[in-house]
Design goal:
Layout (H helix, E strand, L loop, with lengths): L2 H15 L13 H10 L3 H17 L3 H11 L4 H13 L2 H9 L8 H7 L12 H10 L7 H9 L18 H7 L1 H7 L2
Helix pairs in contact: 1-2, 2-8, 3-5, 3-8, 3-9, 10-11
Length: 190
């Protein structure tokens, strides 16, 4: 699937979710259902293409500086948490995602991050982008047990990167974090 088409589908879901598209913490978060609805209008093979492109998009964010930003924002972030963070970051749309991958400190501009810094409700992450995609696949007539096999076949045995890219530092080192993520550090300093 063309990257522009992929981001266009995400944007259609964001538009359907309206002003609640930027926070995954709400118990009645409308974005996952909106994404399922948008994708369910496609043929099952196109939904598999969406899943493959989602894999590529989130893999492009597998970078130490972004992981360290997630660690700071969430008060800790392991492997699974960083997968959730990247899935949720993709749901924030192309502009936010692209800017955050290039400059993780730009996340300090997001209202949800500001709320999180104040210990108010909010979350960027999303437990798994696969959930709404798999549900759309089933609704579109794809074999219920065939989604994972279809995605694996489409991925063609690609092996995920084992180590994040970019420069890392000890995120527990307040001085190093202020140097690398000054705006986020200012928000989350105790």
């Amino acid at each position: 699937m063309d990257i522009n088409e992929w981001w266009g589908l995400v944007e259609r879901a964001r538009e359907a979710a309206g002003d609640r598209a930027d926070d995954r913490d709400a118990p009645d978060d409308p974005l996952p259902d909106a994404l399922t609805d948008v994708l369910a209008a496609l043929e099952p093979a196109r939904i598999v293409d969406f899943a493959v492109t989602a894999h590529e998009v989130t893999a492009s964010a597998y970078r130490w500086p972004l992981w360290n930003a997630a660690y700071l924002i969430e008060g800790g972030c392991g492997d699974d948490g960083f997968m959730d963070f990247r899935d949720g970051l993709a749901l924030l749309g192309r502009d936010v995602f692209t800017r955050a991958v290039a400059d993780p400190d730009s996340l300090a501009e997001l209202p949800v991050v500001v709320r999180m810094s104040r210990d108010e409700r909010g979350w960027i992450g999303y437990e798994t982008l696969e959930g709404p995609v798999r549900e759309a696949y089933a609704r579109a007539g794809g074999a219920p047990d065939g989604f994972h096999a279809a995605v694996e076949t489409a991925l063609g045995g690609r092996i995920p990167t084992r180590e994040p890219g970019g420069e890392t530092w000890d995120v527990e080192d307040a001085e190093a974090t202020r140097r690398h993520l000054p705006r986020l550090a200012a928000l989350f300093e105790e």
